[in-house]
Design brief:
Keywords: Membrane, Transmembrane, Transmembrane helix. The protein has 111 residues and is mainly alpha-helical. Helix content is 80%, strand content 0%.
């Protein structure tokens, strides 16, 4: 949701409600937990299943790129444009590495 015409800083937000600061910090931590919780199965599946050439692993990783990765990239990029908080590096890195990895392994998996 876009808040056109509204501009606020973290200190202004905290001045409105003392609980707003900890809540925004909690949101940032939850975003990080979301990325880590997606990364653990991706690393394990990549190491054990994709390395053995199992097609289901490639499709699972593609699904995770589209579902988890693009969703997070969209959300944190919107958050950045709304607040100026630079939280968008991790999801963009996640998507870039996933896309490169899937591209590089496609011939191995589908040949």
């Amino acid at each position: 949701m876009l808040f056109i015409g509204y501009d606020f800083s973290f200190s202004q937000l905290a001045a409105v409600d003392p609980q707003a600061g900890p809540f925004v910090a909690l949101l940032a931590m939850l975003a990080s937990v979301n990325i880590v919780s997606a990364a653990v199965p991706i690393v394990l599946i990549s190491k054990f299943a994709l390395k053995k050439g199992q097609k289901w692993a490639w499709y699972y990783l593609l699904f995770m790129l589209v579902w988890e990765g693009f969703n997070d990239v969209y959300s944190v990029t919107q958050f950045y444009f709304e607040t100026g908080a630079p939280m968008f590096v991790m999801p963009w890195l996640f998507c870039t590495l996933m896309a490169v990895g899937l591209y590089k392994t496609r011939k191995q998996i589908f040949s």
